[in-house]
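[audit] Reproducing an earlier prediction to check determinism. Same input, same settings, fresh worker. If the tokens differ from the archived copy the diff job will pick it up downstream; this log only records the rerun itself.
[audit] input (193 residues):
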Amino acid sequence: MPPAGPRPLLGEPVSLDLLNTWWVVQGSRQDLLTSVEGLHIWLADNDLGHLLPAAGEAPAAGAPDPSATLRALLGARDAIAAAVRAPGSPDAVRRMDAVLRHGRIRPVLTAEGPDESVEFDDPVWGPAWTAAYDYLRLLRTAPDRIRACQHPDCVLHFFDTSRNGTRRWCSMAGCGNRAKASRHYARSRESRP
């Protein structure tokens, strides 16, 4: 299993977690997906490791190529980012559709009853399609709850699951506390003679 990733926010829906493979540390933008190792970390973080051979293992016949999977996933991240930035824009729609055309959900009947099976035209597209499809699920569920952190130095995204839908920060412990500390510092400087 790959080592735990360095990212500050985990546990978001897979589409937003893919966006969160970009983050900022001390003003410097970081990117988990600069290598196949980062791909394996992201897949493990999202319980998608079954879609690729384990890091260091020789791929079985017909298994997806990790480098090609990484390229497809980067395309999906760009598509989701475009859709979050400009929902419904022709460019965002085109980019999302370019990823989504590589998979489909097929209804099936099993011994246990009705079910669905996900099929990809090429297994390379499995993680990318899964993330793009998840974004559609979020849009169907509650598009107004797809949020960017409001801290000016943060680039992370989250799905607001708070009861009243007013979450503002990716993390209250991180960005929320930094914002509160900044406001406190500004007030204390204003009150000094």
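[audit] rerun output stored. Observation attached for the diff report: The mean pLDDT is 89.
[audit] end
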